[in-house]
Design brief:
- The protein is built from nine helices and ten strands.
- With 266 residues, it is of the alpha/beta class.
- The strands form two sheets. It has a six-stranded mixed sheet with strand order 6-7-8-3-9-10, sandwiched between helices. It has a four-stranded antiparallel sheet with strand order 2-1-4-5, covered by helices on one side.
- α3 packs across α4, α3 packs parallel to α5 and α4 packs across α5.
- The longest helix is centred in the middle third of the chain and has 14 residues.
Length: 266
């Protein structure tokens, strides 16, 4: 199975039609010599939601760290909305790629929710009414506007995760990267977060071991193992491929049938 076709190379696309993400021939080795990625190619059109699946040590985190320039490719290129992820463009790229960490407490550090959500755009130069509008918009999208003046540590874990999402949305990113978004959430918080993500008008790359959650939110999935993409296609079809799942140490919950679950079409 294959992912979306890449655009032709006969000429540059208009900026509004550039894919959100283009990774071409990406390879990376850590200083100790461990080769984490081997020639990864991945294109994500604007507005698509894609799950990045694979066992521990597959290279998922290494790939994500290339999206905003934390790591520099040993070979290959990464482009976000047509902008190369290289030193001269890092400030722009980091505003376009918003990463929501697995633990929201790694992301929330200000005295109030409002100040946490305002931190990014204020650091980018926004002030006054425009800054207030960004904060209100982001908190409203995650259903946390009424908590704007609360201290983050007084919120539940699920509420803190939603605020962490809002801190990224306030930057109006091109790509929202979610790292294990469903971890440590109770069933209600898990459903609430899924509904929020489902309604967001942004490209989403979700790194997860939670395969039912991937099926719920991401029509497309990419399986990464040992530094290479081994499958790319419809999430339901990939999860129903028992040989593929077993070969790459992916396991569905007991009795879960991916073919029987209604899915998103975004």
């Amino acid at each position: 199975m294959s992912g979306p076709e890449r655009a032709g190379t006969g000429g540059a696309e208009p900026p509004e039609r550039e894919p959100s993400l283009e990774v071409a021939g990406l390879a990376y080795a850590y200083p100790d010599g461990h080769q984490a990625l081997f020639g990864v190619d991945l294109t994500v059109p604007r507005g698509q939601r894609v799950a990045l699946l694979g066992p521990n040590g597959a290279g998922k985190t290494t790939l994500v760290l290339h999206l905003n320039g934390i790591l520099t490719p040993g070979a290959g290129t990464v482009r976000v909305a047509g902008t190369p992820v290289t030193e001269p463009h890092l400030r722009t790229v980091r505003q376009r790629v918003g990463v929501v960490f697995q633990d929201p407490d790694d992301q929330l550090f200000m005295p109030t929710v409002r100040e946490d959500v305002a931190f990014g755009p204020a650091n980018a130069g926004l002030r006054g009414a425009e800054l207030a509008e960004r904060v209100e918009e982001a908190l409203t999208r995650v259903g946390m506007a009424e908590y704007a003046d609360r201290a983050p540590h007084h919120l539940s874990f699920g509420q803190r995760r939603r605020v962490a999402v809002a801190t990224v949305l306030s930057m109006r990113p091109e790509i929202l990267v979610l790292d294990e978004p469903s971890s440590n959430l109770d069933p209600l918080a898990r459903r609430e977060l899924a509904e929020i993500v489902d309604a967001l008008p942004v490209t989403v790359l979700m790194v997860t071991h939670d395969l039912p959650y991937a099926l719920r939110l991401c029509p497309r999935s990419v399986v990464l193992d040992r530094g290479v993409i081994v499958a790319d296609g419809d999430t339901g079809e990939l999860l129903a491929d028992h040989e593929l799942m077993a070969a790459h140490r992916l396991e569905l919950p007991w009795g879960f049938d991916p073919r029987a679950v209604p899915r998103s079409t975004a």
